[in-house]
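Hi D.,

Good news: the full-assembly prediction came through. Inputs first.
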Amino acid sequence: GESVGLHLPTLSVQEGDNSIINCAYSNSASDYFIWYKQESGKGPQFIIDIRSNMDKRQGQRVTVLLNKTVKHLSLQIAATQPGDSAVYFCAENWYSGGGADGLTFGKGTHLIIQP
Amino acid sequence: GAVVSQHPSRVICKSGTSVKIECRSLDFQATTMFWYRQFPKQSLMLMATSNEGSKATYEQGVEKDKFLINHASLTLSTLTVTSAHPEDSSFYICSARTGDFSEAFFGQGTRLTVV
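Then the structure:
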């Protein structure tokens, strides 16, 4: 896999390799984070989430890491497949106490899987 | 996961006319829905929070008289773009959450083109 610096819009990896997508979030009070995948012309699709009381969470082929000290979130995708090609967004949320809240989205990273 | 349906998926309208976009939660009740706008190659930006039975809450810079939101039932929210102009052309996406610390489910999005 290739570690991507913050704010890079595109990440290209070979099929089968691991990929790491990074995100810097803005609000130190954020307590819930979600990674979304968006394919062209479609709405975001949930991948994995993590609460602020955790620093790591694993799903199927995906792992999310949270570093609250530096307000950094990463998404690791193992053994990438062509279907993983998409734009990936991190989203943050802080609990306002008034019910469900809207999400604040990061800039997004376009992941391209090379055959 | 829960399903949010958005209609229409694409709409072309003439400048000065109004367009209504519907967002439905198909298998759950959503007291709160959210409307986002996404310009090409950019992230999602929260426009407003739609509350069932009460007025919507708009984000700073979003004109409430231009983007009319109605949340008439627990499963339906509508966004009406009034007196549309070419600069309103964008991808509009709705979402709904089942509660705090829960993932947001997104509609398929509506591509609005104002000519």
